């Protein structure tokens, strides 16, 4: 029986372990906290787990040496940044997970944008990088509508989007921009591995979609596109967070738009190889937005998204272990793209306080009505939660549980996910019931059609001309 | 005409909310001239009288605000809660109301927005990650740089705080006040996902089907009549041109006093003589209450511009009774169709012909569920 070691302790890793368990492997895990779902899968497969920091290369190597896995799967981004995959490969372990040199495509948003422009990767945005908050502010003012981000990946936090076309609102929105730049920079204070700087780029409007792909250095295997929802609260209101739910596949995204994302991923893997001289082996995901300029890369993940991983793993209709092994050993060209003809809706269930007040969000006890889960016919994945002393589970501050409902139609998947979300019971938990609803799907379709008509019209005209009064004509593309 | 309600919540913390409050209310100036807001800053709830005619560089810091535009003040404070409400029935936060829409803000920073099961509209939207926006008019959300998420459902209560958004109750909204589509709303707003302009276009087409005489030109009464006029003209194949120039933009139907109403009409419609001289003219308006507007317009066209014939067509059935749900309108005794037969009305308004949609025609054409009580004789 082949052995697989999964590194990480979130709902994404629970989903990866679930998919791998279906391939009949013996599971092992290295987790920072005891994820009840991963622990159960490990036990059922006859494996075992260690508790320790997934971000520590030394601990990862120790776990691998103890368990002698045939494959190590590194789930989250922080272990990749910290060189966990590199350390494992050096010791001869077959590993699915990007090298720290190439994971920089996610870790450093400024590096990613720079490579996109240098190597002509499709889906670029105009941007600037500033150590000085005042300079970031004045560049933002010049751009108009902006996204302001820390240069380093910081768990999806510290991102501001301000639609500044309406000049009459300047005296209110200026402050949001200025504070955004300060807060984005402040997010970096706890990371010693990057310059303290802020990325300012043009804000785009449209429909988000994530294309997750396996890359083996030569071939790219793309999963079905998934849509994530970064607003924390119901109806797409409120602060940005790690993602409150997903739908997949996406009837409102055209095949060509999916392919542009795949092309961007291929071109990015190639750009990274040329720039750093290291092959990209692992997961590379493009978090895209369909805009009036066409598909644009908002950012990269050097791993599966969370919760996007759940949709990808569920919908893949094949042997996940075999697929991952092919990706880790340069045999991805032999993999067959087979997917279930189903729709999926994922909902994250988070404790009150998430994402603005982690202390308030931690320590809430909840239960899962497993009979109701079985009746609903859905899947439950544990995230930032551990077993509680008196029974049930306890939140640790982030998204506690992610549930997946599948069905023959988007409506069926949505209804199943809603029933399942109701089976997670506890005080002070919330989730977004709007995600995946018929109303939501219709709104996304309308929005996609709206931006599609414009980018196709622009595409037919070829180059874009910008007339700047007093300066002259600027030609793009 | 209902009040324009507005609510803003800043997830970004305390900022200068004044520009958002001002332009959010100003975007609903079609609903009145009295604009009031309550804003929650570190000093607690603060009342703001907003002069919609003046763009002042004011700095009023807060995390949330509620406000209202109407012909009178519709906001108040009770204890540590500020309310802005419209409609009948009691209003208290965290509770549904029988027939009132409201936005409410508590001193500890919780925002409520409630849409009653029928009649009045509210929509919710977002600006980036930082603002939740709620307004009677979806156009107000757009003016604030926001994206409309959806209309609240009938009977839905939204509770917004720093820690989350909770929606309770609500089902498909019942009938909306017909005048919201016909007259009150901005042409660029949507109600329950239906564009107001689309509804008015349908009414205009239906109205065109009733016009039987030959015409040379079609003009609309500013402002609401213009869009109807374009669609009537399109359907009839008759030229449509601007027939009037406005000196002030005022919603004349809102005014109680007859003298105020007439002077408002006069100021918003000076006739373009070239458009009508020697011609058979059809003038289009949204609704007919006392007939004062139409009579004035007809006289302008005939006497000042020298029109040969003046006909009028009105998109809604004539009003016959005051709204029992709180919409401000002149008393029943001012409603011309309560007192006179159509032929007499036509003569009294000095028209050559008068067309309007009957209640049945109106309900068939409008394509959405509406309350039509004011079109019926009490």
Automatic annotation (TrEMBL), chain A:
GO terms for biological process: 'de novo' IMP biosynthetic process; purine nucleobase biosynthetic process. PANTHER family: PHOSPHORIBOSYLAMINE--GLYCINE LIGASE, PHOSPHORIBOSYLAMINE--GLYCINE LIGASE, CHLOROPLASTIC. Belongs to the GARS family. Residues 113-329 form the ATP-grasp domain. It is an enzyme of class 6 (ligase). It holds the Pfam family GARS_N. This is phosphoribosylamine--glycine ligase. Keywords: ATP-binding, Ligase, Nucleotide-binding, Purine biosynthesis. Pathway: Purine metabolism; IMP biosynthesis via de novo pathway; N(1)-(5-phospho-D-ribosyl)glycinamide from 5-phospho-alpha-D-ribose 1-diphosphate: step 2/2. Its EC number is 6.3.4.13. NCBIfam families: purD (TIGR00877). GO terms for molecular function: ATP binding; metal ion binding; phosphoribosylamine-glycine ligase activity.
From TrEMBL, chain B:
SUPFAM superfamilies: PRTase-like. GO terms for molecular function: amidophosphoribosyltransferase activity. It is an enzyme of class 2 (transferase). It comes from Pyrobaculum oguniense (strain DSM 13380 / JCM 10595 / TE7). It holds the Pfam family Pribosyltran. Residues 209-316 form the Phosphoribosyltransferase domain. This is Glutamine phosphoribosylpyrophosphate amidotransferase. Keywords: Glutamine amidotransferase, Glycosyltransferase, Transferase. Its EC number is 2.4.2.14. Coiled coil: none annotated.
């Amino acid at each position: 029986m082949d052995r697989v070691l999964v590194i990480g302790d979130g709902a994404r890793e629970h989903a990866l372990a679930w998919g791998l368990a279906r391939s009949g492997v013996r599971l092992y895990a290295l987790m920072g906290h005891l994820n009840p779902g991963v622990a159960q899968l490990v036990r059922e497969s006859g494996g075992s787990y260690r508790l320790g920091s997934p971000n520590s290369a030394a601990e990862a190597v120790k776990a691998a040496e103890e368990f002698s896995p045939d494959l190590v799967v590194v789930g989250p981004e922080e272990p990749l940044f910290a060189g966990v995959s590199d350390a494992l490969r050096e010791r001869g372990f077959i590993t699915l997970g990007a090298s720290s040199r190439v994971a920089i495509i996610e870790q450093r948003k400024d590096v990613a944008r720079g490579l996109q422009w240098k190597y002509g990767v499709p889906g670029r945005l105009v941007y600037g990088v500033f150590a000085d908050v005042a300079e970031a502010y004045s560049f933002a003012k010049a751009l108009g509508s902006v996204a302001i981000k820390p240069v380093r990946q910081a768990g999806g936090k510290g991102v501001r989007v301000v639609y500044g076309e309406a000049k009459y609102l300047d005296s209110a929105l200026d402050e949001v921009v200025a504070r955004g730049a300060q807060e984005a920079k402040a997010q970096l204070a706890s990371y010693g591995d990057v310059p303290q700087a802020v990325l300012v780029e043009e804000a785009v409007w449209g429909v988000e979609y994530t294309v997750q792909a396996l890359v083996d250095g030569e071939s790219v295997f793309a999963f079905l596109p998934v849509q994530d929802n970064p607003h924390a609260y119901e109806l797409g209101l409120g602060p940005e967070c790690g993602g409150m739910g997903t739908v997949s596949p996406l009837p409102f995204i055209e095949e060509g738009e999916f392919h542009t994302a795949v092309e961007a991923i291929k071109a990015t893997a190639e750009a990274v190889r040329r720039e750093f001289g290291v092959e990209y082996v692992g997961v590379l995901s493009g978090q895209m937005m369909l805009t009036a300029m066409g598909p644009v890369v908002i950012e990269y993940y050097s791993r599966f998204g969370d919760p996007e991983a759940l949709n990808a793993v569920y919908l893949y209709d094949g042997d996940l272990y075999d697929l991952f092994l092919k990706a880790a050993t340069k045999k991805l060209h032999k993999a067959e793209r087979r997917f279930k003809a189903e729709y999926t809706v994922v909902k994250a269930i988070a404790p009150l306080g998430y994402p603005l007040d982690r202390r308030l969000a931690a320590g809430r006890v909840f239960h899962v009505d497993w009979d109701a889960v079985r009746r609903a016919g859905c899947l439950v994945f544990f995230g930032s939660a551990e077993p509680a002393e008196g029974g049930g589970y306890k939140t640790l501050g982030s998204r506690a549980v992610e549930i997946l409902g599948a069905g023959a139609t988007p409506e069926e998947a949505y209804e199943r996910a809603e029933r399942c979300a109701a089976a997670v019971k506890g005080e002070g938990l919330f989730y977004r019931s709007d995600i995946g609803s018929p109303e939501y799907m219709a709104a996304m379709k309308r929005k996609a059609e709206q931006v599609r008509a414009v980018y196709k019209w622009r595409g037919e005209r070829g180059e874009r001309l910008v007339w700047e009064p007093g300066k002259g004509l600027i030609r793009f593309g | 005409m209902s009040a324009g309600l507005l609510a803003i919540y800043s997830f970004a913390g305390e900022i200068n909310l004044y520009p958002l409050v001002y332009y959010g209310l100003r975007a609903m100036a079609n609903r009145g001239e009295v604009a009031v807001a309550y804003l929650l800053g570190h000093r607690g709830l603060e009342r703001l009288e907003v002069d919609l005619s003046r763009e002042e560089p004011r700095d009023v810091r807060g995390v949330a605000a509620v406000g209202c535009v109407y012909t009178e003040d519709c906001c108040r404070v009770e204890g540590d809660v500020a309310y802005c409400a419209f409609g009948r029935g009691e209003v208290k936060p965290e509770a549904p109301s029988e027939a009132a829409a409201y936005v409410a803000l508590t001193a500890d920073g919780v925002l409520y927005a409630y849409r009653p099961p029928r009649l009045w509209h509210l929509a919710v939207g977002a600006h980036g990650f930082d603002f939740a926006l709620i307004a009677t008019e979806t156009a107000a959300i757009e003016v604030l740089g926001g994206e409309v998420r959806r209309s609240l459902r009938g009977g839905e209560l939204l509770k917004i705080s720093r820690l989350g958004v909770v929606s309770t109750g609500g089902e498909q909204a019942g009938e909306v006040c017909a005048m919201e589509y016909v007259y009150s709303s901005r042409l660029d707003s949507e109600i329950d996902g239906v564009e107001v302009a689309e509804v008015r276009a349908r009414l205009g087409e239906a109205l065109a089907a009733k016009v039987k005489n030959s015409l040379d030109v079609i003009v609309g009464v500013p402002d609401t009549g213009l869009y109807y006029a374009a669609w009537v003209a399109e359907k009839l194949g008759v030229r449509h041109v601007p027939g009037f120039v406005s000196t002030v933009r005022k919603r004349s139907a809102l005014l109680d006093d007859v003298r105020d109403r007439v002077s408002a009409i006069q100021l918003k419609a000076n006739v373009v003589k070239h458009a009508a001289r020697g011609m058979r003219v059809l003038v289009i308006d949204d609704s007919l209450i006392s007939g004062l507007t139409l009579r004035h317009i007809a006289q302008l066209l005939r006497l000042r511009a020298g029109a040969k014939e003046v006909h009028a067509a009105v998109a809604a059935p004539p009003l016959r009774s005051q709204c029992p749900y709180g919409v401000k309108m002149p008393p029943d005794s001012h409603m011309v169709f309560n007192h006179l037969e159509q032929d007499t009305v036509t003569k009294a308004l000095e028209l050559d012909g008068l067309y309007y949609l009957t209640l049945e025609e109106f309900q068939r054409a409008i394509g959405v569920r509406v309350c039509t009580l004011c079109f019926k004789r009490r």
